[in-house]
Specification:
- By secondary structure, the chain is of the alpha/beta class.
- Helices cover about 40% and strands about 15% of the residues.
- The strands form two sheets. Strands 1, 2, 5, 6, 7, 8, 9 and 10 form an eight-stranded mixed β-sheet that branches. Strands 3-4 form a two-stranded antiparallel ribbon.
- Helix 1 runs antiparallel to helix 3, helix 1 crosses helix 9 and helix 5 (about 85-95) runs antiparallel to helix 6 (about 130-135).
Length: about 280
């Protein structure tokens, strides 16, 4: 009896660096790695949502080449932020339609931070566009996203690599993509870099203590880039693809181990063992 283990993929935040997730997804797809559930934080929520609703990595890559800060925000008159990320919500609706998380082709979770409590919020139901806006809401730059009487900001503050939602979704193997693993910092060019680097330092620090461990890590080498390097999409795609490809043997090993363990749990005992158990009872 052959049992199939369930594999979950967690995609971390990283602003422009999140384009590397598309390369990761392309490699996993080409190597026939099954993704049975997927979770995303911040930039990772965009890639996770698109993939969960059937967009191919090729289609995602074509869109990503035109991404920039102006793709994601609209100017605001609020005292709580300089801009809103309503343009991001509009983009998600244009790409996927006005869809609900619970209707995804692949079970999907999106992580944000509740600004009123500081707690982690894992969206498993409701509007995809609104959940992605909440997850990507960089504090200080974007006005907090209001949903159900609560205010939400970037999920990277509480769980940048969203592994715990994968465990809750029943993943036997949890693969984490950490865009911050090899991060370095350069002198900021403008106030956006200051905010991005500050948030990145916080998420990198909390990311060392994952509440749920990964079985396999994919760590793209992005140390030469900043989270504002929107013009480097082609390079990020290659780096993400390369990092995932290097992890394929480890992923296959994990799938094999988990599959054999599940098969042992599900297999019937030999006939003589069942007979002895019967006689003993």
């Amino acid at each position: 009896m052959k049992a199939k283990p369930k594999l979950g993929l967690a995609l971390s935040g990283g602003s422009a660096l999140g384009i590397a997730h598309i390369g990761v997804l392309q490699s996993l797809r080409e190597h026939n790695v099954p993704i049975d559930c997927i979770a995303g934080t911040s930039a990772g929520s965009v890639a996770a949502a698109c993939y969960a609703f059937g967009m191919t990595p090729d289609d995602m890559a074509k869109k990503a080449k035109n991404f920039g800060w102006l793709t994601f925000f609209k100017f605001s008159y609020s005292t709580l932020g300089l801009v809103t990320d309503e343009a991001l919500g509009d983009m998600m609706r244009k790409l996927l339609g006005d869809v609900k998380i619970e209707d995804a082709n692949i079970p999907l979770a999106i992580v944000a931070t509740d600004l009123g409590t500081g707690d982690k919020m894992v969206f498993r139901k409701g509007s995809v566009a609104e959940a992605v806006m909440a997850s990507c809401c960089l504090p200080g730059l974007f006005v907090p996203v209001k949903l159900g009487g609560r205010q939400f900001v970037d999920g990277g503050l509480v769980e940048n690599v969203p592994l715990s939602p994968l465990a809750a979704m029943g993943a036997d193997i949890k693969v984490g993509v950490n865009l911050a693993r090899w991060r370095t910092y350069r002198p900021p060019r403008h106030f956006v870099d200051v905010m991005l680097d500050s948030v990145d330092i916080v998420t990198h620090a909390q990311g060392k203590f994952h509440p749920v461990p990964a079985d396999v890590w994919i760590d793209p080498h992005l140390e030469e880039y900043t989270m504002s390097d929107w013009g480097k999409a082609a390079e990020f795609l290659i780096i993400g693809y390369r990092a995932a490809t290097e992890a394929i043997p480890e992923i296959n090993d994990a799938l094999g181990v988990a599959g054999r363990a599940a098969a042992r749990r599900g297999a019937k005992a030999p006939w003589y063992r069942r007979l002895l158990d019967f006689l003993g009872s």
